[in-house]
Structure formats: structure tokens, C-alpha cells
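Q: What does the assembled structure look like for these inputs?
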Amino acid sequence: MGNKDLLNYTLQLADDVMILGHRLSEWTGHGPVLEQDIALSNIALDLIGKARNLYQYAAKQEGNGKTEDDYPYKRDVLDWTNALLVEQKNGDFGQTIVRQFLFDCYHYYHLEALSKSSDEQLAFIGAKSVKEARYHLQYSSEWMIRLGDGTEESHQRMQQAIEDKIHYFEELFIPTETETRLIQTGIAPDLAMIKEKAMAKLNAVIQESTLSLPDQIFVQKGGRTGMHTEHLGYILAELQFMQKTYPDMQW
Amino acid sequence: MNKNLPLFEIFIRSKNGLHHKHVGSLHASDPQNAIMNARDVYTRRQEGVSIWVIESKDITASNPEDSDAFYAPAEDKVYRHPTFYDLPDEVKHM
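A:
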């Protein structure tokens, strides 16, 4: 209870953007065209920048000489509480866009609400990041529409990507026990209200993209309690390679 | 992909009060997409406050063969330059 809740929540927020930022950074140098290579790298930098702010805040709460680096580099799979959506593979550009769009629908409205948190530092980070997230949502929405309502092949690929990824969307709106307590004290935003706004945006863009949601959605969850898909292990193997090979190295 | 996407010329205004300046070109599916791409490619280091885009094919350029007829006659007409005025230091971007 108390400080432990705030710490866990800070880490949960950080883990989402750290992992998604890392996934997007995998596109750097491999984008379909130069313009999109830069665009995805920019978003990666925004997300990792936000993750740093949150990890720094977590380290400050914990004290004991903890630093921002300890969280991304020294925790194993079970300790990470990011949602399953963000650790899913990049796939093709369309699948990356769908994953990004689903996250942005949640992220933008979540930050908007977080900027009014009763916790001063979280409110500050929310207000700072919401401008970036507004652009991310605009970027991914525009690509949803262009590719969904594009050629026959792009439409078919986007529809497939939606059907693959939509099952991971709901988890973003299921509060953890920690979150439920923090919602009551006004530190964490009310997810029900965020979900309403996110769904409205999702439906509007899906419709304009001439895409459709599948009739049946099987909610995939577990990330928030450390139960991850097999992908997170591979991400951490790469992300933490240097730290594991040369512990606490300096250069 | 680039082969199917038209080329756009990008103009950025570096700050309010200045004019838009040509900064380069990029590929995009349509003008709105070109603005987003320009934001990512050309303004990531705070280079601008406003973006204009235009499809390259919509620009009509002068012909280099006309250079003599176009520009040479101005060479000996120094009186067309307002160089005989003293400009106060406060006047910038003249």
C-alpha cells in the first residue's frame, strides 16, 4: 500500500512505453522508405524519453542508490508489467501501424487524464507527453486510413493485422489492483472514461479506413502481472545484452 | 514504394515574420501525408513553425537556356539596387 503502489504504477506506465519504444527502434535503418524510417524513429525516441522520465521518478521514490537504468536493464521477464500489445512483433509496416494505432488510442486519452493526476510528478510527465502522443495518434490514424482504404493488398493486410492485434487492446483498460486503489485517490486516471474515448476514436478511424473489427474478440491479458508472451524474452535478450555481458560497464 | 509516390517540395518558415524557405523534397501519398513527413524529416530539431508543401510537378521552372535573355540585361543596372540608403541596425531580414 502507499508508496509501493505509486512505485509499481510508475513502473507499469514506464514499461509500456519502454517496450514499444524499443520495438519501434527496431525499424531504424529498416523503414520501408526514408520518410517513415525517420517518423518511426522519432516516435521511438518520444516513447523512450517518456520511459526515462518515469524510471527516473521510480528511482527517486525507491532511493537506495537506484538509477533509471536499473529498471530496463536489470529486471527479468516476470518483473515487467507492460501490456502484451506493446511486445508484439513489428511484422510488416501495416502491422506496426495497427499496433501503434491501438496503443495511441489508449495512450493519448490516458495522458490527457494523467496530466490531471493528484500526483504532481505524474501530472507533469502526462502534460509533457500528451503533445507527443497527439502527434502519434494523428500519424497512426492517417496511415490506418491510407492503407485500409488503399489498394486491395494493403486493405487485406490491414484487416488481417486488426484481426491479429485487437485481442490485446482490452488489457490496456483493465485496472490492476494497484491501479484500482490509485484511481480512488485520484493518482491514476479512471480507465472506464478513457476506454469510452478510445473506443469512439477507434471506431471512427476503423470506419473511415473501410476496415472492420472481428465479431468475436478473445481478450488476451497477463502482461500487467508479469505473464508475458514469448516475445518479451527476446526483446530483453537484446536490450540487456551489454549489461549481462559486462555488468555495470562504463564508457 | 517510392516509385508510386509523388514527389513534394517542402518549404519551412523558421520563425514567425520570416518567409517560407525551400528546404528539400520528399515522397508522400498526398499533401497531408507530405506535411506529416516534412514534420518528421525537416522539423525534428526545431527548424520551423510552419510548413508548406507542393507537388513538384506543379512547379513551373524557368529554362536555363533563357539565362542570357532573362538575367544578363540586369548586370549593368546597379541603380536598381537600394544600396544608397543607410539601414538602421534594428532593421533585420531586409
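The two ends of chain A are 39 Å apart (CA to CA).
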